[in-house]
Amino acid sequence: MAGLSAAKALRRAQVDVLLVDRTNHxxxxxxxxxxxxxxxxxxQIAAPLRGILRRxxxxxxxxxxxxxxxxxxxxxxxxxxxxxxxxxxxDYLVLATGVxxxxxxxxxxxxxxxxxxxxxxxxxxxxxxxxxxxQAEAEEDPRAHGDLLTFILVGAGPTGVEMAGAISVxxxxxxxxxxxxxxxxxxxxxxxxxxxxxLPTFTPDISQAAKRRLESLGVEVRLGHPAEKIDHEGVTVxxxxxxxxxxIWTAGVAPSxxxxxxxxxxxxxxxxxxxxxxxxxxHPEIFVVGDTASLDQDGKxxxxxxxxxxxxxxxxxxxxxxxxxxxxxxxxxxxxxxGSMAVVGQGYAVVQSGRLHIKxxxxxxxxxxxxxxxxxxxxxxxxxFAEWAWTYLTRQRGSLLIVNRPALPVEAQAPIETPRQxxxxxxxxxxTPARGVATSVAAGK
Length: 445
Hints:
Elements: H1 2-9, E1 17-21, E2 25-27, H2 32-36, E3 46-48, H3 49-52, E4 59-70, E5 75-80, E6 85-89, E7 92-95, E8 99-101, H4 119-138, H5 145-148, E9 150-154, H6 158-174, E10 188-193, H7 204-216, E11 219-223, E12 227-231, E13 234-237, E14 240-243, E15 246-249, E16 253-255, H8 258-262, E17 272-273, E18 279-280, E19 283-288, E20 293-294, E21 296-297, E22 300-301, H9 306-325, E23 340-343, E24 349-353, E25 356-360, H10 361-373, H11 378-394, E26 426-427, E27 432-433, E28 436-439
Parallel strand pairs: 1-4, 7-19, 7-28, 9-10, 9-15, 10-11, 17-20
Antiparallel strand pairs: 2-3, 4-5, 5-6, 8-16, 12-13, 13-14, 18-19, 21-22, 23-24, 24-25, 26-27
């Protein structure tokens, strides 16, 4: 989100922008869980980058992966579609390389507990959920149904809470009349977290309301203990073994290696420490934004959420434009917090904005309106709104498909959604357009 936001902010600047991304599309990650739970299709939350930017004549889009940055030569090394390494020069560089999954040193968990950062991840999770019901329907031994129909989510942040609620609604409302040999409502949904409450970044009253709502949907909420072991047979937590064939990782992220590329200082999580104008120390031509950046405001680090990424991307673009045109520099970046929200099952959400705390149906409508508004294209907004209305009224879901992932079309395969990075520069003295670069390499906001 941050890289695309920066590119759009440069639409009237006298610069040439090169947008580099590992995928050919922009992904609205906050709705990934709805693809994973069969509410929406992949094409409803993603749009081709070239289509989004088709009217912005100063942007060139390149399908490729950034492998390194030479800060002395001002060169980004890109692996293109043919796996050829291509050096790309820049005057200004905006890195928005985002984050990927973090298993807190237990990388062997990844084989058994996929995360949710890309379209490919969402389709993989959807496959696992739907295949579990198909296998249970075919399994004649009722004793095997418990393992197959136990769904465990590790991590009770917004993604885990939203996924747990959505899976519960899926199995208790949408699927309950579609099987003959099993009752989907007998399935278990278990939400685990080492924290002592769900949504730990929210206030205690919001957190407690979300927990009560999850439990009313039949979700088993287990807090205070981390996952000790995850394998193909289930999860061990707090010394207890929970058998499951479907474990989903919804906890923890790790930043891209941008700090190593730049030789820049990083925080404990590996994010690049940036100055108040989002530039790297000693390199005013390099901006780092979104989940890749670490910046404190009012004594606290900014959260890794979509709004931070969008605002930082726009700021970086405006600052480059000001430098190129010789205009007055904008003041240091300051994040305007519009609040936090999470949906907990159908028709219920929680919203926290300063002292304003809202729970229930009104919060759900606020959540829906804001998320539809931020979709990249009008056709997506209309499509998603119509799909939500249909699902709400009929309880039917339009994407209950088990897809053979290797056979997916190219546009649907996104092993890791990559943030975009923009670079634009100015040849101020000559008056010619400056070189620009936007790069993306890892999933992020």
